[in-house]
Amino acid sequence: MHYDFVPHPKRKTLRWPDGKRLAVIVTLNLEYWDMLKDTDEPYYAGGPPAIPDPVPGNILDVPNFSWREYGQRVGIWRLFEAFDGVGVPASCTINAKVGLERRDIVDAVLERGWELVAHNYEQGDLLTNYQFNKDEEEALIKKSLKVFKDVTGKESRGWLSSSLRSTTNTPDILADNGLIFLCDYMNDEQPYMIQTDNGPIVSVPYSVEINDFTFFHRRGMSTSQALDVLKEQFDQLYLESETTGKLMSVGLHPHVSGHPYRIRATREFLEHAKGHDDVWWATREEIAEWYMENHEAHIPAGQT
């Protein structure tokens, strides 16, 4: 795979459809963690643990497992209520095992008509485990996509890797299997094209900076501080988007943002962003499809 390095001053103006100014994607990551792994190595379950002392995967880690499962049992429903109350959609990423083991959550997203994006099979089985075995990586991706179709009734058009850990083969595998976008790369505030041996795919950037794990578990922010960061990010991108379209990505996890003392940050940020009529509450698929058709007017092929 390959993508051109085109700095911002060398790009043409990006104009979102219908005169929209700033695209906003707020992601709810719907993830599943196995209770036990058949390994005596520490089980990397994605993101900082609540209690840092690692134990082997074949020993039950009650505090960390139950902390994460709180998001499925309680936190996600509080987040659904927050989005419903403000009247804006989320874009949801889904491990295949959520569809198999936590069907109520998937059904709640489908009932709302929100976007679902494939997000690996199980959160702790990273694609980087298969960096040197492309066939095994493709088999895992295909298994994930099959479950996605079975539980949602449609093909996934895009992919976000667990913990953003993909390989140099991942874009080629995704394009070969008919997907049109990848969200792992966090190096931009606009979409861009990735070239693969199987045709182009769109990078629709995710963010680890504007992310509840970073706010609360890596930097120890309070709810009010996290809200300030969200508003600052939005306001600056909205200012810049007067001259060229921008994309704001927010990453949330139900076991992090779904606690009562943190939900205010999500709710009040959504209210703040909704107060601007020219915000595009886009799905990743909408952005990818539009950009596939219009990227030459932004970053022409081969421009460096």
Gyration radius, in Å? 19 Å
Oligomeric assembly: single chain
CATH topology: TIM Barrel
Overall number of strands: 9
* pLDDT averaged residue by residue: 96
User: Gap between N and C termini, in Å?
Assistant: 16 Å
Number of H- or I-type helical stretches: 10
Please, what is the CATH homologous superfamily? Glycoside hydrolase/deacetylase
CATH class category name: Alpha Beta
Shape assignment: globular
Strand content bin: 5-15%
Topology:
Layout: E1 22-30, H1 62-86, E2 91-94, H2 96-101, H3 103-112, E3 115-118, H4 134-152, E4 158-159, H5 170-176, E5 181-182, E6 192-196, E7 199-203, H6 212-218, H7 223-240, E8 246-252, H8 254-257, H9 263-274, E9 279-280, H10 284-294
Parallel strand pairs: 1-2, 1-8, 1-9, 2-3, 4-5, 5-7
Antiparallel strand pairs: 6-7
Helix pairs in contact: 1-9, 7-9
